[in-house]
Amino acid sequence: MDNATVIVVGSGGREHALCLSLAASPRVSSLHCVPGNAGTAKMATNHACDMSNEPLLDLFREIKADLVVVGPEAPLCEGLADACQSAGIACFGPVAALAHLEGSKLHAKLAMQSAGVPTAAFQRLDATSDIDAALDAYAGQPWVVKRDVLAGGKGVVVTSDRNEAKQFIITSIGSDGFVLLEAFLPGEEASMLVVMDGTGFHTLPPSQDHKRAYDGDRGPNTGGMGAYCPAPVITEQVHERVLKRIVEPMHRHLSDQPVPYRGVLFIGLMIDASGDPFVVEFNVRFGDPECQVTLPLVETDMFDLLHGAATDGLSELSLNIRQGTALTVVLASEGYPSAPVKGRPIRGLEQALETAVYGKTWVNLAGVGVDESGQYIATGGRVLSCSALGVDVKRTKSEAYRLLSEIHLEGAHFRTDIAHRAMQ
Ligand code: AMP
Ligand code: GLY
After folding, report:
1. Is the CB of 267 under 6 A from ligand 1?
2. CA 168 remoteness from chain centre
3. What separation in Å is there between the alpha carbon of 225 and the centre of ligand 2?
4. Rounded to two decimals, what is the model's pTM?
């Protein structure tokens, strides 16, 4: 398809990354974002809209969207893809019944069991369960407790403090009715993004996020403080195991459904010391910030890839990946993740955006707005990330950090050790 009209749903750094790569496609003549942010405004028309299905569908019809690309999980769990399907609009992102792979950890565990996919053993605990006996059963390693709700990264506690684990179990059962206690998986984490539809799938190069707030993987969990791609922990042999043991059975399971999975499956992996992969979680969307470092390595036209998946055309598409490494480092507001300070001016961003070149060194905006005087201000916890693409990790990292040094936000913090596992 040529002269396509595409709309991206969402407002974070991931959606800016999607817009940057779609804007580079000669197939796309009209690019929109809802609600978007100050970054997407540079190459797309942002729309303010009530984010429920009906008003969104009205907008998609009004702009005559040929393709809707849904960034975050919440609209998918709310059935936005189902609504698009009923309206005959191509949508990248799965229907609600399949989005529950992310919306419900229990659902994901049961899907993995039925597909024979390796993951941590677990118990479902409710008001009738013997919590002490369950904690005893998993003693000796940290306890992993997971709520069965979309909790924006706050639904999981991994702790060696038995009391903390027990309290989280009790409060979660109180609010949700039940909770999952799962076995701790030792190893190294990696993220695998698999674009799939009813006809086939393509695995994108594996990446690694940095979820803890501070250097050395210390401090509180965050949405992600930086990422790089590809991640060397996924060797060719590990990749083969991930394909055979996880991706192929999950694709068989997901393409066997009344409506096949059309979108990207994010597989959060733990690779143990023997190189055996286990699934930690599934997400039904691109990771943020994994998206920012994965899409720039995709040489295949981004519209062809996303539209192909939305219309069951993947089996006819070949995927080409660029050589090199992409890396991004997140600049976070003071107080992030617990209580980010918002409203402060961001100096040097205007200049950084002007000199940036997508695919070399560039900025992904997330929590950035513009005040009445036209000044960029921080509006969120994760404010922006500086990204680079280069031949090796070391030089790519120094390019991304050089760009970051030109941008100033009072009180902000960032990690200085992105990609440390690739440098050892
Ligand atoms: P999740 O929301 O399920 O991805 O969990 C958040 C984070 O908790 C993961 O990225 C891991 O770092 C950690 N985690 C979750 N489950 C486990 C597990 N079974 N073993 C070890 N770490 C885990
Ligand atoms: N960066 C992890 C996620 O998007 O869930």
Report:
1. no
2. 25
3. 10
4. 0.96
